[in-house]
Amino acid sequence: MTEKSHTQKTIAIIGGGPAGLMAAEILATAGMAVTIYDHKPSVGRKFLMAGRGGLNLTHSEDFEPFMQRYGSAAPNRLPAIQNFTPTQLRQWCEDLGQETFIGSSGRVFPKSLKASPLLRAWLERLNALGVTINLNHHWTGWDNDALTFTTPQGPITVKPDATLLALGGGSWAKLGSDGSWTELLKNKGIPVAPLRPSNSGFTVQWSDILKTRFAGQPLKTVTLSYGNQTIPGDMMITETGIEGGPVYALSSALRNDLDAEKPATLHIDLKPGLTPDAIRQKLSTPRGGQSFSTYLQKSLGLPPISINLLRECAGDCSAMGPDKLARILKALPLTVSGTASIDRAISTSGGVTFDSIDENYMLKKLPGIFVAGEMLDWEAPTGGYLLQACFSTAVAAANGILKHLK
Ligand SMILES: Cc1cc2nc3c(=O)[nH]c(=O)nc-3n(C[C@H](O)[C@H](O)[C@H](O)COP(=O)(O)OP(=O)(O)OC[C@H]3O[C@@H](n4cnc5c(N)ncnc54)[C@H](O)[C@@H]3O)c2cc1C
Predict the structure, then answer these.
(1) Per CATH, the architecture of 10-197+348-405 is what?
(2) pLDDT tens, position by position, 83-137
Protein backbone atom coordinates (compact mmCIF):
# COMPACT_ATOMS: atom_id res chain seq x y z
CA MET A 1 0.00 0.00 0.00
CA THR A 2 1.23 3.51 -0.76
CA GLU A 3 0.58 6.40 1.68
CA LYS A 4 -1.88 9.04 0.49
CA SER A 5 -0.40 12.51 0.56
CA HIS A 6 -2.42 15.62 1.41
CA THR A 7 -1.70 17.15 -1.99
CA GLN A 8 -3.15 14.16 -3.87
CA LYS A 9 -6.45 14.74 -5.64
CA THR A 10 -9.20 12.47 -4.35
CA ILE A 11 -11.38 10.43 -6.69
CA ALA A 12 -14.52 8.51 -5.75
CA ILE A 13 -15.42 5.66 -8.07
CA ILE A 14 -18.87 4.29 -7.41
CA GLY A 15 -19.26 0.74 -8.73
CA GLY A 16 -16.56 -1.93 -8.61
CA GLY A 17 -17.33 -3.73 -11.88
CA PRO A 18 -14.83 -3.96 -14.74
CA ALA A 19 -15.43 -0.30 -15.71
CA GLY A 20 -14.86 1.05 -12.19
CA LEU A 21 -11.81 -1.14 -11.57
CA MET A 22 -10.19 -0.19 -14.89
CA ALA A 23 -10.66 3.53 -14.21
CA ALA A 24 -9.26 3.05 -10.69
CA GLU A 25 -6.11 1.48 -12.14
CA ILE A 26 -5.48 4.38 -14.52
CA LEU A 27 -6.21 7.08 -11.97
CA ALA A 28 -4.14 5.47 -9.20
CA THR A 29 -1.25 4.92 -11.64
CA ALA A 30 -1.43 8.67 -12.40
CA GLY A 31 -0.98 9.40 -8.68
CA MET A 32 -4.58 10.09 -7.65
CA ALA A 33 -5.98 8.96 -4.27
CA VAL A 34 -8.70 6.58 -5.45
CA THR A 35 -11.52 5.10 -3.39
CA ILE A 36 -13.97 2.62 -4.89
CA TYR A 37 -17.40 2.34 -3.27
CA ASP A 38 -19.63 -0.67 -3.92
CA HIS A 39 -22.82 -1.73 -2.20
CA LYS A 40 -22.06 -5.45 -2.42
CA PRO A 41 -19.73 -7.31 -0.01
CA SER A 42 -17.20 -7.85 -2.86
CA VAL A 43 -16.40 -6.24 -6.22
CA GLY A 44 -16.61 -7.68 -9.75
CA ARG A 45 -19.53 -10.01 -9.11
CA LYS A 46 -21.01 -9.76 -12.60
CA PHE A 47 -17.51 -10.03 -14.09
CA LEU A 48 -17.08 -13.32 -12.21
CA MET A 49 -20.48 -14.48 -13.48
CA ALA A 50 -19.39 -13.59 -17.03
CA GLY A 51 -16.46 -15.95 -16.52
CA ARG A 52 -18.71 -18.90 -15.74
CA GLY A 53 -19.48 -19.68 -19.36
CA GLY A 54 -15.97 -18.69 -20.56
CA LEU A 55 -14.89 -15.05 -20.12
CA ASN A 56 -15.19 -13.55 -23.58
CA LEU A 57 -13.05 -10.44 -23.16
CA THR A 58 -13.19 -9.02 -26.66
CA HIS A 59 -13.23 -10.01 -30.34
CA SER A 60 -10.42 -10.36 -32.87
CA GLU A 61 -12.27 -9.18 -35.98
CA ASP A 62 -11.15 -6.11 -37.95
CA PHE A 63 -11.90 -2.71 -36.48
CA GLU A 64 -14.62 -1.70 -38.96
CA PRO A 65 -16.88 -4.75 -38.55
CA PHE A 66 -16.08 -4.66 -34.83
CA MET A 67 -17.46 -1.12 -34.53
CA GLN A 68 -20.57 -2.01 -36.52
CA ARG A 69 -21.64 -4.26 -33.62
CA TYR A 70 -22.50 -1.13 -31.64
CA GLY A 71 -25.16 -0.11 -34.17
CA SER A 72 -26.31 3.47 -33.85
CA ALA A 73 -24.05 4.02 -30.80
CA ALA A 74 -20.95 3.23 -32.92
CA PRO A 75 -19.96 6.86 -33.59
CA ASN A 76 -20.07 7.55 -29.84
CA ARG A 77 -17.98 4.49 -29.03
CA LEU A 78 -15.40 5.03 -31.76
CA PRO A 79 -12.94 7.38 -30.01
CA ALA A 80 -13.00 5.37 -26.77
CA ILE A 81 -12.38 2.04 -28.53
CA GLN A 82 -9.74 3.59 -30.81
CA ASN A 83 -7.91 4.76 -27.69
CA PHE A 84 -8.17 1.44 -25.88
CA THR A 85 -8.40 -1.22 -28.56
CA PRO A 86 -9.07 -4.97 -28.40
CA THR A 87 -5.31 -5.51 -28.85
CA GLN A 88 -4.55 -3.27 -25.87
CA LEU A 89 -7.16 -5.09 -23.80
CA ARG A 90 -5.51 -8.43 -24.58
CA GLN A 91 -2.11 -6.97 -23.67
CA TRP A 92 -3.50 -5.68 -20.37
CA CYS A 93 -4.86 -9.13 -19.57
CA GLU A 94 -1.52 -10.76 -20.42
CA ASP A 95 0.35 -8.22 -18.26
CA LEU A 96 -1.76 -9.50 -15.38
CA GLY A 97 -0.39 -12.99 -16.04
CA GLN A 98 -3.42 -14.27 -17.96
CA GLU A 99 -2.54 -15.39 -21.47
CA THR A 100 -5.31 -15.02 -24.03
CA PHE A 101 -6.32 -17.00 -27.09
CA ILE A 102 -8.64 -16.52 -30.07
CA GLY A 103 -11.40 -19.12 -30.27
CA SER A 104 -12.67 -20.58 -33.54
CA SER A 105 -15.39 -17.90 -33.72
CA GLY A 106 -12.82 -15.10 -33.42
CA ARG A 107 -13.77 -14.42 -29.80
CA VAL A 108 -10.94 -13.69 -27.37
CA PHE A 109 -10.71 -15.47 -23.99
CA PRO A 110 -8.13 -15.78 -21.23
CA LYS A 111 -6.53 -19.24 -21.45
CA SER A 112 -8.04 -20.20 -18.07
CA LEU A 113 -11.44 -19.16 -19.53
CA LYS A 114 -12.32 -17.90 -16.06
CA ALA A 115 -12.55 -14.38 -14.63
CA SER A 116 -11.40 -15.31 -11.12
CA PRO A 117 -7.58 -15.54 -11.69
CA LEU A 118 -7.68 -12.29 -13.66
CA LEU A 119 -9.74 -10.50 -11.00
CA ARG A 120 -7.44 -11.77 -8.22
CA ALA A 121 -4.31 -10.47 -9.98
CA TRP A 122 -6.07 -7.21 -10.80
CA LEU A 123 -7.15 -6.56 -7.20
CA GLU A 124 -3.59 -7.24 -6.04
CA ARG A 125 -2.35 -4.65 -8.52
CA LEU A 126 -4.95 -2.11 -7.33
CA ASN A 127 -3.98 -2.78 -3.72
CA ALA A 128 -0.31 -2.18 -4.57
CA LEU A 129 -1.32 1.09 -6.22
CA GLY A 130 -2.99 2.19 -2.98
CA VAL A 131 -6.61 2.00 -4.18
CA THR A 132 -9.05 1.83 -1.24
CA ILE A 133 -12.15 -0.33 -1.68
CA ASN A 134 -15.11 0.45 0.59
CA LEU A 135 -17.62 -2.39 0.36
CA ASN A 136 -21.24 -2.44 1.58
CA HIS A 137 -21.48 1.26 0.72
CA HIS A 138 -24.73 1.98 -1.09
CA TRP A 139 -24.69 5.26 -2.98
CA THR A 140 -27.92 7.22 -2.41
CA GLY A 141 -27.24 10.45 -4.30
CA TRP A 142 -26.04 13.88 -3.21
CA ASP A 143 -26.44 16.21 -0.26
CA ASN A 144 -25.67 19.55 -1.91
CA ASP A 145 -22.47 18.57 -3.76
CA ALA A 146 -21.34 15.80 -1.37
CA LEU A 147 -21.94 12.14 -2.28
CA THR A 148 -24.15 10.29 0.20
CA PHE A 149 -23.89 6.60 1.11
CA THR A 150 -25.60 4.28 3.51
CA THR A 151 -23.15 1.91 5.20
CA PRO A 152 -23.42 -0.73 7.93
CA GLN A 153 -22.03 1.95 10.29
CA GLY A 154 -24.68 4.49 9.27
CA PRO A 155 -24.92 7.19 6.59
CA ILE A 156 -21.79 9.03 5.42
CA THR A 157 -21.03 11.87 3.03
CA VAL A 158 -17.91 12.21 0.85
CA LYS A 159 -16.62 15.20 -1.10
CA PRO A 160 -14.00 14.07 -3.61
CA ASP A 161 -12.30 16.25 -6.23
CA ALA A 162 -13.95 14.14 -8.97
CA THR A 163 -16.39 11.24 -9.14
CA LEU A 164 -16.80 8.41 -11.61
CA LEU A 165 -20.14 6.62 -11.75
CA ALA A 166 -19.68 3.04 -13.03
CA LEU A 167 -22.90 1.54 -11.72
CA GLY A 168 -23.63 -0.99 -14.48
CA GLY A 169 -26.94 -1.75 -16.19
CA GLY A 170 -30.11 -3.21 -14.75
CA SER A 171 -29.85 -7.00 -14.96
CA TRP A 172 -28.84 -9.62 -12.39
CA ALA A 173 -29.69 -7.28 -9.48
CA LYS A 174 -28.39 -9.82 -6.98
CA LEU A 175 -24.88 -9.24 -8.38
CA GLY A 176 -25.18 -5.51 -7.67
CA SER A 177 -26.34 -3.85 -10.90
CA ASP A 178 -29.90 -3.06 -9.87
CA GLY A 179 -30.38 0.10 -11.92
CA SER A 180 -31.48 2.05 -8.81
CA TRP A 181 -29.16 4.86 -9.91
CA THR A 182 -31.49 5.83 -12.79
CA GLU A 183 -33.85 7.74 -10.47
CA LEU A 184 -30.95 9.51 -8.73
CA LEU A 185 -29.71 10.89 -12.05
CA LYS A 186 -33.16 11.67 -13.42
CA ASN A 187 -33.83 13.71 -10.25
CA LYS A 188 -30.81 15.80 -11.20
CA GLY A 189 -32.25 16.44 -14.66
CA ILE A 190 -29.90 13.99 -16.46
CA PRO A 191 -31.62 12.28 -19.42
CA VAL A 192 -31.62 8.51 -18.91
CA ALA A 193 -33.07 6.22 -21.60
CA PRO A 194 -35.18 3.43 -20.02
CA LEU A 195 -33.17 0.28 -19.23
CA ARG A 196 -34.38 -2.62 -21.39
CA PRO A 197 -33.24 -6.24 -21.65
CA SER A 198 -30.49 -6.84 -24.22
CA ASN A 199 -29.00 -10.24 -25.11
CA SER A 200 -32.01 -11.69 -23.37
CA GLY A 201 -34.27 -14.70 -23.69
CA PHE A 202 -37.90 -14.62 -24.84
CA THR A 203 -41.11 -16.15 -23.57
CA VAL A 204 -42.98 -18.77 -25.60
CA GLN A 205 -46.34 -20.32 -24.74
CA TRP A 206 -45.07 -23.91 -24.62
CA SER A 207 -47.41 -26.85 -24.25
CA ASP A 208 -47.06 -28.84 -21.00
CA ILE A 209 -45.48 -31.73 -22.93
CA LEU A 210 -42.69 -29.62 -24.40
CA LYS A 211 -42.05 -27.87 -21.09
CA THR A 212 -41.88 -31.02 -18.99
CA ARG A 213 -39.84 -33.07 -21.45
CA PHE A 214 -37.43 -30.53 -22.88
CA ALA A 215 -37.00 -27.50 -20.56
CA GLY A 216 -33.28 -27.13 -19.83
CA GLN A 217 -32.22 -28.92 -23.02
CA PRO A 218 -30.39 -27.44 -26.02
CA LEU A 219 -31.60 -27.63 -29.59
CA LYS A 220 -28.16 -28.15 -31.05
CA THR A 221 -26.64 -26.78 -34.26
CA VAL A 222 -29.63 -24.98 -35.72
CA THR A 223 -29.88 -21.57 -37.35
CA LEU A 224 -32.39 -18.93 -36.27
CA SER A 225 -33.60 -16.27 -38.68
CA TYR A 226 -35.40 -13.03 -37.94
CA GLY A 227 -35.66 -10.04 -40.24
CA ASN A 228 -32.44 -9.96 -42.27
CA GLN A 229 -30.36 -11.84 -39.68
CA THR A 230 -29.56 -15.56 -39.71
CA ILE A 231 -27.58 -16.83 -36.73
CA PRO A 232 -26.24 -20.35 -36.20
CA GLY A 233 -25.81 -21.93 -32.76
CA ASP A 234 -27.54 -23.85 -29.98
CA MET A 235 -30.94 -22.65 -28.76
CA MET A 236 -31.93 -23.52 -25.19
CA ILE A 237 -35.50 -24.47 -24.36
CA THR A 238 -36.47 -23.10 -20.94
CA GLU A 239 -39.59 -23.53 -18.78
CA THR A 240 -40.88 -20.22 -20.04
CA GLY A 241 -39.36 -19.86 -23.50
CA ILE A 242 -35.99 -19.75 -25.26
CA GLU A 243 -32.47 -18.46 -24.63
CA GLY A 244 -28.90 -19.06 -25.85
CA GLY A 245 -26.38 -17.47 -28.22
CA PRO A 246 -28.45 -17.17 -31.42
CA VAL A 247 -31.49 -15.93 -29.46
CA TYR A 248 -29.37 -13.22 -27.80
CA ALA A 249 -28.01 -12.20 -31.17
CA LEU A 250 -31.55 -11.62 -32.46
CA SER A 251 -32.80 -10.14 -29.21
CA SER A 252 -32.51 -6.47 -30.03
CA ALA A 253 -34.62 -6.82 -33.22
CA LEU A 254 -37.16 -9.11 -31.52
CA ARG A 255 -37.44 -6.81 -28.48
CA ASN A 256 -37.92 -3.70 -30.61
CA ASP A 257 -40.75 -5.36 -32.57
CA LEU A 258 -42.42 -6.65 -29.42
CA ASP A 259 -42.16 -3.17 -27.87
CA ALA A 260 -43.88 -1.81 -31.00
CA GLU A 261 -46.59 -4.49 -30.52
CA LYS A 262 -45.63 -6.19 -33.77
CA PRO A 263 -45.88 -9.99 -33.96
CA ALA A 264 -42.45 -11.61 -33.54
CA THR A 265 -42.04 -14.93 -35.34
CA LEU A 266 -38.56 -16.29 -35.91
CA HIS A 267 -37.74 -19.23 -38.17
CA ILE A 268 -35.65 -22.21 -37.17
CA ASP A 269 -33.67 -24.25 -39.68
CA LEU A 270 -33.57 -27.65 -38.01
CA LYS A 271 -31.16 -29.08 -40.61
CA PRO A 272 -28.82 -26.24 -41.62
CA GLY A 273 -26.30 -28.75 -43.00
CA LEU A 274 -28.75 -30.06 -45.64
CA THR A 275 -30.24 -28.24 -48.61
CA PRO A 276 -34.03 -28.53 -49.12
CA ASP A 277 -33.25 -30.85 -52.06
CA ALA A 278 -31.11 -33.13 -49.93
CA ILE A 279 -33.88 -33.27 -47.31
CA ARG A 280 -36.50 -34.04 -49.97
CA GLN A 281 -34.35 -36.87 -51.26
CA LYS A 282 -33.87 -38.38 -47.83
CA LEU A 283 -37.61 -38.14 -47.21
CA SER A 284 -38.54 -39.89 -50.46
CA THR A 285 -37.64 -43.34 -49.11
CA PRO A 286 -40.86 -45.16 -48.15
CA ARG A 287 -41.83 -44.90 -44.49
CA GLY A 288 -43.12 -48.49 -44.30
CA GLY A 289 -44.50 -49.37 -40.88
CA GLN A 290 -42.31 -46.84 -38.99
CA SER A 291 -43.90 -44.16 -36.81
CA PHE A 292 -43.44 -40.59 -38.09
CA SER A 293 -40.92 -39.87 -35.29
CA THR A 294 -38.82 -42.96 -36.02
CA TYR A 295 -38.90 -42.14 -39.71
CA LEU A 296 -37.62 -38.57 -39.13
CA GLN A 297 -35.02 -39.83 -36.70
CA LYS A 298 -33.76 -42.49 -39.11
CA SER A 299 -33.93 -40.63 -42.40
CA LEU A 300 -32.70 -37.21 -41.19
CA GLY A 301 -31.05 -37.91 -37.83
CA LEU A 302 -33.46 -35.54 -36.09
CA PRO A 303 -33.32 -35.84 -32.27
CA PRO A 304 -36.54 -36.08 -30.19
CA ILE A 305 -36.29 -32.39 -29.17
CA SER A 306 -36.42 -31.30 -32.85
CA ILE A 307 -39.27 -33.67 -33.67
CA ASN A 308 -41.31 -32.42 -30.70
CA LEU A 309 -40.58 -28.81 -31.58
CA LEU A 310 -41.78 -29.54 -35.12
CA ARG A 311 -45.07 -30.85 -33.70
CA GLU A 312 -45.31 -27.92 -31.27
CA CYS A 313 -44.85 -25.23 -33.93
CA ALA A 314 -46.34 -26.82 -37.05
CA GLY A 315 -48.90 -29.29 -35.66
CA ASP A 316 -49.23 -32.83 -37.02
CA CYS A 317 -47.01 -33.00 -40.12
CA SER A 318 -47.16 -36.78 -40.56
CA ALA A 319 -49.37 -36.58 -43.67
CA MET A 320 -47.17 -34.00 -45.43
CA GLY A 321 -45.31 -34.84 -48.60
CA PRO A 322 -41.47 -34.48 -48.76
CA ASP A 323 -41.69 -31.05 -50.47
CA LYS A 324 -43.77 -29.37 -47.80
CA LEU A 325 -42.00 -31.14 -44.96
CA ALA A 326 -38.59 -30.08 -46.27
CA ARG A 327 -39.78 -26.46 -46.41
CA ILE A 328 -41.04 -26.57 -42.81
CA LEU A 329 -37.90 -28.25 -41.50
CA LYS A 330 -35.81 -25.50 -43.09
CA ALA A 331 -37.96 -22.66 -41.70
CA LEU A 332 -40.00 -23.76 -38.69
CA PRO A 333 -41.97 -20.73 -37.44
CA LEU A 334 -41.74 -20.03 -33.71
CA THR A 335 -43.68 -17.10 -32.29
CA VAL A 336 -42.33 -15.48 -29.15
CA SER A 337 -44.86 -13.84 -26.87
CA GLY A 338 -42.64 -11.46 -24.91
CA THR A 339 -39.18 -10.58 -23.64
CA ALA A 340 -37.93 -12.65 -20.72
CA SER A 341 -37.36 -10.86 -17.40
CA ILE A 342 -34.77 -8.05 -17.55
CA ASP A 343 -33.13 -9.54 -14.49
CA ARG A 344 -31.98 -12.60 -16.48
CA ALA A 345 -30.62 -10.58 -19.41
CA ILE A 346 -26.87 -10.66 -20.13
CA SER A 347 -26.92 -6.88 -20.48
CA THR A 348 -29.26 -3.92 -20.74
CA SER A 349 -29.71 -1.21 -23.32
CA GLY A 350 -30.60 2.34 -22.32
CA GLY A 351 -28.91 4.44 -19.65
CA VAL A 352 -27.23 7.84 -19.52
CA THR A 353 -27.60 9.33 -23.00
CA PHE A 354 -24.53 10.36 -24.99
CA ASP A 355 -26.01 13.85 -25.37
CA SER A 356 -25.71 14.37 -21.63
CA ILE A 357 -21.93 13.77 -21.47
CA ASP A 358 -19.06 15.68 -23.07
CA GLU A 359 -16.15 14.16 -25.01
CA ASN A 360 -14.43 13.40 -21.67
CA TYR A 361 -17.41 11.37 -20.40
CA MET A 362 -18.32 14.14 -17.91
CA LEU A 363 -21.98 14.92 -17.27
CA LYS A 364 -22.59 18.32 -18.84
CA LYS A 365 -25.04 19.24 -16.07
CA LEU A 366 -22.81 18.02 -13.22
CA PRO A 367 -19.20 19.12 -13.74
CA GLY A 368 -16.76 16.80 -12.00
CA ILE A 369 -19.08 13.77 -12.30
CA PHE A 370 -18.06 11.25 -14.98
CA VAL A 371 -19.82 8.11 -16.29
CA ALA A 372 -18.52 4.85 -17.81
CA GLY A 373 -19.47 1.26 -18.62
CA GLU A 374 -22.80 -0.39 -19.19
CA MET A 375 -24.74 2.44 -17.55
CA LEU A 376 -24.25 4.50 -20.73
CA ASP A 377 -26.90 4.25 -23.45
CA TRP A 378 -25.52 1.64 -25.88
CA GLU A 379 -25.99 -2.00 -26.62
CA ALA A 380 -24.03 -4.67 -28.43
CA PRO A 381 -24.30 -8.40 -29.01
CA THR A 382 -22.35 -10.98 -27.01
CA GLY A 383 -18.93 -11.79 -28.46
CA GLY A 384 -16.74 -9.66 -26.18
CA TYR A 385 -18.20 -6.35 -27.36
CA LEU A 386 -19.80 -5.64 -23.97
CA LEU A 387 -16.66 -5.89 -21.85
CA GLN A 388 -14.56 -4.14 -24.52
CA ALA A 389 -16.89 -1.12 -24.42
CA CYS A 390 -16.96 -1.13 -20.61
CA PHE A 391 -13.15 -1.14 -20.46
CA SER A 392 -12.70 1.41 -23.25
CA THR A 393 -15.21 3.90 -21.84
CA ALA A 394 -13.59 3.50 -18.41
CA VAL A 395 -10.19 4.39 -19.89
CA ALA A 396 -11.74 7.37 -21.68
CA ALA A 397 -13.52 8.61 -18.53
CA ALA A 398 -10.39 8.15 -16.38
CA ASN A 399 -8.36 10.18 -18.87
CA GLY A 400 -11.21 12.73 -18.89
CA ILE A 401 -10.91 13.03 -15.09
CA LEU A 402 -7.15 13.57 -15.35
CA LYS A 403 -7.69 16.31 -17.91
CA HIS A 404 -10.41 17.92 -15.78
CA LEU A 405 -8.24 17.96 -12.66
CA LYS A 406 -5.31 19.53 -14.47
C1 LIG B 1 -24.31 -14.32 -17.29
C2 LIG B 1 -23.50 -13.21 -17.91
C3 LIG B 1 -22.47 -13.51 -18.79
C4 LIG B 1 -21.74 -12.46 -19.39
N5 LIG B 1 -20.72 -12.79 -20.22
C6 LIG B 1 -20.03 -11.80 -20.85
C7 LIG B 1 -18.92 -12.12 -21.71
O8 LIG B 1 -18.48 -13.27 -21.80
N9 LIG B 1 -18.34 -11.09 -22.39
C10 LIG B 1 -18.76 -9.79 -22.27
O11 LIG B 1 -18.21 -8.91 -22.96
N12 LIG B 1 -19.74 -9.47 -21.40
C13 LIG B 1 -20.38 -10.43 -20.69
N14 LIG B 1 -21.37 -10.10 -19.81
C15 LIG B 1 -21.69 -8.66 -19.59
C16 LIG B 1 -20.66 -7.96 -18.66
O17 LIG B 1 -20.44 -8.75 -17.52
C18 LIG B 1 -21.18 -6.57 -18.26
O19 LIG B 1 -21.45 -5.83 -19.43
C20 LIG B 1 -20.13 -5.83 -17.41
O21 LIG B 1 -19.92 -6.49 -16.19
C22 LIG B 1 -20.60 -4.39 -17.12
O23 LIG B 1 -19.55 -3.77 -16.43
P24 LIG B 1 -19.78 -2.44 -15.59
O25 LIG B 1 -18.51 -2.22 -14.82
O26 LIG B 1 -20.30 -1.36 -16.45
O27 LIG B 1 -20.97 -2.80 -14.56
P28 LIG B 1 -21.13 -4.00 -13.52
O29 LIG B 1 -20.19 -5.10 -13.78
O30 LIG B 1 -22.57 -4.30 -13.51
O31 LIG B 1 -20.71 -3.32 -12.15
C32 LIG B 1 -21.49 -2.30 -11.54
C33 LIG B 1 -21.12 -2.23 -10.06
O34 LIG B 1 -21.82 -1.13 -9.47
C35 LIG B 1 -22.28 -1.51 -8.18
N36 LIG B 1 -23.44 -0.65 -7.85
C37 LIG B 1 -24.58 -0.52 -8.56
N38 LIG B 1 -25.41 0.37 -7.94
C39 LIG B 1 -24.74 0.81 -6.82
C40 LIG B 1 -25.05 1.76 -5.78
N41 LIG B 1 -26.20 2.46 -5.77
N42 LIG B 1 -24.14 1.96 -4.79
C43 LIG B 1 -22.95 1.30 -4.80
N44 LIG B 1 -22.61 0.39 -5.75
C45 LIG B 1 -23.49 0.16 -6.76
C46 LIG B 1 -22.62 -2.97 -8.34
O47 LIG B 1 -22.63 -3.66 -7.10
C48 LIG B 1 -21.53 -3.48 -9.29
O49 LIG B 1 -20.41 -3.98 -8.58
C50 LIG B 1 -22.07 -11.10 -19.14
C51 LIG B 1 -23.12 -10.81 -18.25
C52 LIG B 1 -23.82 -11.84 -17.62
C53 LIG B 1 -24.93 -11.48 -16.66
Answers:
(1) 3-Layer(bba) Sandwich (3.50)
(2) 999 999 999 999 999 999 999 999 999 999 999 999 999 999 999 999 999 999 9
User: Where do the domains of the chain lie?
Assistant: 10-197+348-405, 202-339
> Which residues lie with the beta carbon below 6 Å from any ligand 1 atom?
14-20, 37-40, 43, 45-47, 49-50, 55-56, 138-139, 166-168, 172, 176-178, 180-181, 346-347, 373-374, 384, 386-387, 390
Cα of 391 vs centre of ligand 1, distance in Å, is 11
Share of the chain above pLDDT 90, in %: 93
CA nearest to 21, candidates 40, 47, 2, 41: 47
* Closest ligand 1 atom to 18 CA: 25
Instruction: Tell me how far apart the alpha carbons of residues 232 and 104 are, in angstroms, rounded to a whole number.
Output: 14
Pick from 3-7, 73-77, 350-354, 357-361: least confident:
3-7
Q: Rounded distance, CA 209 to CA 217, Å?
A: 14
Q: How confident is the model at residue 3 (pLDDT cuts 50, 70, 90)?
A: low
